[in-house]
Amino acid sequence: MKPTMFCSVVFGVLLASLSAAWGQAVISPEPYARYQYAAKFVCGPSGENPLQVVKGTYATAMNVHNPDLHQNVIFIKKVAVAFPEQKVGPVSWFVKAELGPDQAFEVDCPEMIRMAASTGTPLPLFLKGFFVILTPMPLDVTAVYTARPTDGQVSTMDIEVIQPRIMPTPTPTATP
Residues 33-65: pLDDT tens digits? Predict the structure, then answer.
């Protein structure tokens, strides 16, 4: 057996066992990894450390739209949590999603928190990180950020169009 084939078999067995251990299907990112969208999210009440962000309640909602008028797009999404002081946070499993031609949906704080909680890592009430999409086709991804004092109405709102990162195509390696 060639070393690359052996590694593929071992990797496949490892993915299958991890999948069984976590009770979720492991999704390989390769078929989806042409375009990557990474949008910052902030969710929940802040105030534990006023030097991180000002005291208040923060919410993020991502709108995702398939601009193709004729073709469905299947893509994957995950969250990567960021902890303060350069501590690495958990990264959720990829979740598959699909949009038909010209369809859109929203991903909001409750969904991002559920995705982060699925890692089993204890999470703070104020959660920050990145919502990441990998897709074979371009999408429209827009983030809406709102914040307010803990006892008030919305006092700030920002809308950001998330630009895709075009991922490099893997170069096939020569086999001896």
Answer: 799 999 999 999 987 666 678 888 999 999 999
Q: Report whether 43 contacts 109 (CB < 8 A).
A: yes
pLDDT of residue 151: 78
Look at 10-14, 77-81, 113-117, 157-161 and tell me which has the smallest mean pLDDT. 10-14
The answer to whether residue 87 scores a pLDDT higher than 60 is yes
CA distance 100 to 126: 34
CA 120/CA 122 separation, integer angstroms: 6
User: Rounded to the nearest 5°, which phi and psi values hold at 142?
Assistant: -130, 135
Cα–Cα distance measured from residue 77 to residue 114, given in angstroms and rounded to the nearest whole number: 13
**Which is it for the CA torsion 139, 80, 160, 154, positive or negative?**
positive
114 Cα distance to chain centroid: 12
pTM for this model (two decimals): 0.78
d(CA 76, CA 98): 8
Q: Can you list the domains of the chain with their CATH numbers?
A: 27-166 (2.60.290.11)
Residues 6+ apart with CB under 8 A from 72: 66, 98, 99, 100, 101
Helices (H), ranges, 123-176: none
Q: Are 144 and 61 in contact, with CB atoms under 8 Å apart?
A: yes
